[in-house]
Amino acid sequence: MNSHSLYLVLDLIGTFAFAISGAVAARQRRLDLFGIVSVAFMVACGGGIVRDVCIGAIPPAGLSNWRYLAVSLLASAVAILAYAPVRRLRQPVLLFDAIGLGLFAVAGAQKTLSFGHGAEVAILLGIVSAVGGGVMRDVVLSRLPAILDREIYASAALAGAGAQVLFSYAHWTQWWTPWFATFICVAIRLASLYFGWGLPAFRGPPANVVHEEK
Amino acid sequence: MNSHSLYLVLDLIGTFAFAISGAVAARQRRLDLFGIVSVAFMVACGGGIVRDVCIGAIPPAGLSNWRYLAVSLLASAVAILAYAPVRRLRQPVLLFDAIGLGLFAVAGAQKTLSFGHGAEVAILLGIVSAVGGGVMRDVVLSRLPAILDREIYASAALAGAGAQVLFSYAHWTQWWTPWFATFICVAIRLASLYFGWGLPAFRGPPANVVHEEK
Amino acid sequence: MNSHSLYLVLDLIGTFAFAISGAVAARQRRLDLFGIVSVAFMVACGGGIVRDVCIGAIPPAGLSNWRYLAVSLLASAVAILAYAPVRRLRQPVLLFDAIGLGLFAVAGAQKTLSFGHGAEVAILLGIVSAVGGGVMRDVVLSRLPAILDREIYASAALAGAGAQVLFSYAHWTQWWTPWFATFICVAIRLASLYFGWGLPAFRGPPANVVHEEK
């Protein structure tokens, strides 16, 4: 399998994972069929579309490559037809989401590098690829974006994207290095869930002065 | 009237229709003059700007062609000065919105095709052109985006964009074919309102587990 | 100092000002370290990234020029370590925000002109550069965007961007003209706060018909 196909496979597996998570969130909000498919597609492809626009990949792959839409539709069908078992199995869904996070951080960073951009752009857009769809889902469903909660989420994406960029600059480009970078991100994310890790937050006076500042 | 002018006229009529709907929504929220103009412009041009960025039409027409801003300002003036009669006539406003939906779906899909992109990109961006502005309005005004409600809205845009792409691929390009594609979308949207159509939604356990999944 | 460096300095000072305001808003919401840095970066660079995408400046400077991320991190550190004094001094923070508004409106409009775009695009994107980050912050933190409140905010950005475009077209391009355009915007903004200015808003029947229209 050549390098281009490898990253496309990574990207499609991540698309499926995120589309399932988006379809389940939409189903829980009692959205109709179009709403479920829309949210699934938005979560799965939204971050990638923003990344493609920023690196000059026009038209964005999520819109022009039929495989992305097909995978989103498949995931929506699974989330609808197998909803009861999917809902009951909380840990597999969080696992899917973590796998998607890692795959997208790595594939997104690599695509950015392949378009000739530097390390900083690649790491930032790897993070955007991984968390962007989830932020769009949370904004549209009026939830505080999960990346801003007290959880190790985008930090894990930062680790995965950073590892991929580091391996690339060090010329570690065997077939297994992207899977290793993905594993770093997924391991950090799952360990943070298991051990209850979180980043420092800051206590202080009650938040009754939210609107004092602009 | 040549083909380019025809699609520009379609686009400007749709811009006016959506700008009126946005200005009325902002007026109902008691926003000030700048807020009304901003929301009207956002609803009218937002989807088109996202489409133009995705197809490589830089700078986006909504920003560079003065007619779009002029039409948005005109619609804001109408919504402010004629607010009382506009509010009373619910059905004409829904009619305006449906007409805008159809015109934008068709003109947006056609512009995408004219930039050399394929059928899938054209249909998806026709939908984005048609519903994007309304989604931005709902997100900014903290409402659940109308496209996710149990109504036939984006599905009608899908029909209009799909018809336009089909006619184009079948080389049906007389002056009346875009109006026919627009009519398909508008008819579906208005019929769904009249007959109370909706897509399947899915009942199930109460949504007290919204935050169980990520 | 040559012209390019001048506008980069303007842009970085504005970035610092906005990043402080974003970090303080995130701190008030009790977000964790990553959340504070994310919101600070989003407020500081979000508008500029949208502008860069619309004018064809790929990749966006906020992602590719390390100075922007560095300034955002510095501002986050200041907001965290010096939080108590920063919170108490309400007027300096509003002053920082007004300075950022003016600097971004002017630098954003000028960058758009330098990419060969016309006056309308430059003024609109100068406004987007100045207010876009704040709108993203408010949407993500589920607040009604400040630009839609009854305050002179985006109108001041319009004045600053308009002045810069006017000076450019009139060939007033000494080293001090962008600072003058910035001063116009900052003066309008601060005077509106001091004197309680606002744009006309429109009274009317109670807003119990918000969802009557689509």
Automatic annotation (TrEMBL), chains A, B, C:
Keywords (A to Z) from UniProt: Cell membrane, Membrane, Transmembrane, Transmembrane helix
Looking up InterPro entries in the UniProt record yields: Gly_transporter
Among Pfam families, the record links this protein to: Gly_transporter
Query: Where can this protein be found?
Result: Cell membrane
User: Origin, by domain of life?
Assistant: Bacteria
Which residue numbers delimit the Glycine transporter domain? 9-83, 95-167
Q: How does it sit in the membrane?
A: Multi-pass membrane protein
Sequence intervals crossing the membrane: 6-26, 33-59, 65-86, 93-109, 121-140, 152-172, 178-197
Using the UniProt record, give the first listed, main subcellular location. membrane
Any GO CC annotation of this UniProt entry: plasma membrane
Family that this chain belongs to: Belongs to the UPF0126 family.
What is the recorded name of this protein? Membrane protein
